[in-house]
Design brief:
Blueprint: E1 2-8, H1 13-29, E2 34-41, E3 48-55, H2 60-68, H3 71-75, E4 78-85
Antiparallel strand pairs: 1-3, 1-4, 2-3
């Protein structure tokens, strides 16, 4: 399992919105790998700054392949992507 934190490029809200439906469809089509996913919001919750995903893949190569073809990644939305191995303990 992995935690993925994607930080959007500055001033990329419209790029995010333009690709959001395709991104959500992609996650739905691969829901067996998605433990949880959602946007990181501004402090006042009026905008989106990035994404956090917890994804279940047996290895990093599979995860990297999955991330590479996500519509957000293909659109060039992210300034940075941090991937960390994750072990769920609770609940």
């Amino acid at each position: 399992m992995y935690v993925v934190h994607c930080q959007d490029k500055p001033d990329a809200l419209q790029l995010r919105l333009d690709n959001r439906a395709a991104h959500l469809e992609y996650l739905q089509a691969n829901i067996a790998h998605v433990v949880m996913a959602g946007p990181v919001q501004t402090e006042d919750r009026s905008g989106m700054l990035g994404s956090v995903l917890v994804l279940d893949f047996p290895d990093r190569a599979g995860l990297d392949s999955f991330l590479a073809v996500d519509p957000y990644a293909r659109a060039g939305l992210f300034q940075s992507v941090t991937v960390l191995p994750y072990k769920k303990v609770l609940p």
